[in-house]
Amino acid sequence: MSDFIRRFNTLRDSKSYREIIDAIPYARMMGVEFCQDEQGNLLFSLPFVERNVGNPTLPALHGGLIGGFLENAALIHLMWNRDSLETPKIVDFSLDYLRPGRAQTLHARCVITKQGKRVAHVLIEAWQDNKDKPVAVARAHFLLATLSAN
């Protein structure tokens, strides 16, 4: 088990959300936040900051930022919901932009649709004001275990 996974599991068990984000440099740099709702589901947020604007004319959030936010949400969600000896590796990520991300906080939820011994599939949905009007949806496939060369 890596030092990172050992630390992540300890932080997860103590529900140290901020410290988990601080341990993931890209998530920390973006300003990702997360918590659990009343039902125990993870809710991810990307609070608005001016540097996240990609199109100042609208203004709209940068598409790469939205993609990075959703990818990090999927990784954290997967690690939170499974005991692992190693960090899952993303092998495929597809993203559909459905409407512009306005200059305000972006929220996301994830659902693990398949989790086997070697791979996992996660669906991610992002919205702003209304969950029924998503800004983007994504699908992520992760490799959970190192495959042998046999």
Write a brief structural summary.
The chain is an alpha+beta fold and 150 residues long.
SSE order and pairing:
Layout (H helix, E strand, L loop, with lengths): L2 H11 L3 H6 L2 H6 L2 E4 L5 E5 L6 E3 L4 E2 L1 H18 L8 E9 L8 E10 L3 E9 L8 E8 L7
Antiparallel strand pairs: 1-2, 2-6, 3-4, 5-8, 6-7, 7-8
Determine and state the CATH class: Alpha Beta
Percentage beta strand:
25-35%
Which sequence of strands runs across the widest sheet? 1-2-6-7-8-5
Helix coverage percent of residues?
25-40%
Provide the succession of SSEs.
HHHEEEEHEEEE
Q: Which shape, going by the Cα principal axes? A: globular
Distance between the termini: 23 Å
Count the DSSP helices.
Answer: 4
CATH superfamily: Hotdog Thioesterase
Radius of gyration: 16 Å
What value does the average pLDDT take? Answer: 92
CATH topology: Thiol Ester Dehydrase, Chain A
Biggest sheet, in brief? 6 strands, antiparallel
Give me the secondary-structure category: alpha+beta
CATH architecture tag: Roll
The overall strand count is: 8
Number of domains: 1
What does this protein look like?
- The chain is of the alpha+beta class.
- It has helices at 3-13, 17-22, 25-30, 63-80; strands spanning 33-36, 42-46, 53-55, 60-61, 89-97, 106-115, 119-127, 136-143.
